[in-house]
Sequence to fold (243 residues):
Amino acid sequence: MATRILDVVDMQFDFMKSNGGLYVPNAEPLIERTNDFFRSIPRGLYDLALIKYDTHFPCEYQNSPEKADFPDIHCPYGAQGWELVVNDAELAQRMPVYYMAKNTFDMWQKNPISDRAQMFFDTDAEEQAYDNLYHVTRDRQVLQTGELRDEFMRRVVKLGQGDVEVTMIGVASDFCVHDAMMGYLQRGAHVRVVADLVAGIGTPVPGRAPKGTIGDVINLPVFQPYVQNKQLKIISLQDALKP
Fold:
């Protein structure tokens, strides 16, 4: 029997609210729709949810690769822009919920900042959260030490060891959703993206979907082999609620 994962990508204030620091077009209407979806999920339909936070720090962002595409810091840890805008407490009534902070588009990468000695944090919480990047924890503030991402994927998700189905929602479909999808696919998972619960930016960046829609994303040549062998597909919200 497949392990069924709900992957929630960066559904944070800065991306999802129209007054956020890096608003993704058409993302704000997804908030209410996502909360309705959470309330409608039958218990036992998914084995777990993984909620990911894009997470930055003033001392880190100056050297972040993301700065080249997005010059101003977004989702700074502990600020309003970092906070979730969807109701994870509702989700936790239906399945175990795990959290992971990351400071790259791609959840499968490692922290690109190698010189830890040059990091100077304003609070102990910031420092703890920074040191917990790419660890998976049950703590929604990502302060409690978690399990390394790859170990979690091996031990809990059984990724690469059996039948794993990942259902993805969140933003941005042409950045963090794109990269997460590819990583799951390369590791043998089947991936479903809920068309009603994703939104994209649209960008001329090479390798990204110019329009930013999820249809535009999966039409990229890099995804076509997975579509053709039925490892990747777009589904409706109603399909995401079916056994």
The chain is about 25% helix and 20% strand. Strands lie at 3-9, 48-54, 97-102, 135-137, 147-148, 164-171, 190-199, 232-235. Residues 29-40 form the longest helix (12 residues). The mean pLDDT is 96.
